[in-house]
From TrEMBL:
Isochorismatase-like domain location: 17-185
UniProt xrefs under Gene3D superfamilies: Isochorismatase-like
Name of the protein in its database record: Cysteine hydrolase
Record-linked InterPro entries: Isochorismatase-like_dom, Isochorismatase-like_hydrls, Isochorismatase-like_sf
């Protein structure tokens, strides 16, 4: 069974599920709410349950106040002042309830920018696990997921991007991002479905 345009799914154990920023502050109803998140949440949670111990979760942590920002981040939080820590209700940076059980014993990486690579020890943690392949889910496809995937590519990881485990506030930007990966990053990034990953008795890993 082919996973995607690039060929058959590999099998093995040296892989990690990297779940990007599936947090309460991105649930519909906030200024950053993603309408798709409720749609993908059950799929991502179920994938975590089927592959316990594989997930690392990232969380986007806003600045406390706009004046704490450097460069364009100050202007960013002046626009999104309602999403600063001083204005958010307690617990809004937490992962969504659907992932609480899966995340109870999992590693969680906090970051203050789109990329999880530049101010964290994520790469060291993955190397310590012997990870060669990342299954990526979460949001937004065209922002934090995009930055996550490009950072993974730069570090030599094979990326399996789960198209049915992603969400965005923009259908057009989501589609354009997936098209970019298909057209320009085929040797690094494969667009897959979570159901296809589950179709094999062993989970995916780099060849």
């Amino acid at each position: 069974m082919a996973l995607d345009e690039n060929g058959d799914p590999p099998r093995g154990t040296d892989w990690v599920h990297l779940c990007v920023d599936m947090q309460r502050l991105f649930w519909p109803g906030t200024d950053w709410g993603l309408d798709w998140m409720p749609r993908i949440a059950p799929r991502v949670a179920a994938f975590c349950e089927r592959h316990p111990g594989r997930a690392i979760f990232t969380r986007f942590i806003p600045l406390r106040r706009a004046s704490d920002g450097e460069g364009t981040w100050q202007a960013y939080y002046e626009k999104w002042d309602a999403m600063t820590l001083d204005r958010l209700a307690p617990g809004m940076v937490d992962l969504i309830p659907e992932l609480e059980r899966a995340a109870a014993d999992a590693e969680v990486i906090d970051k203050h920018v789109y990329s999880p690579w530049v101010e964290t020890d994520l790469d060291d943690r993955l190397r310590a696990r012997g990870c060669r392949t990342l299954v990526v889910t979460g949001g937004e496809t065209d922002m934090c997921v995009l930055s996550t995937v490009l950072g993974a590519v730069d570090r030599g990881y094979r990326v399996l991007l789960a198209r049915d485990g992603l969400c965005s506030s923009s259908d057009e930007a989501h589609d354009a991002t997936l098209d970019l990966f298909r057209r320009r990053f085929r040797l690094h990034v494969e667009i897959v479905a979570l159901a296809d990953l589950d179709a094999r008795s062993e989970a995916p890993v780099a060849e």
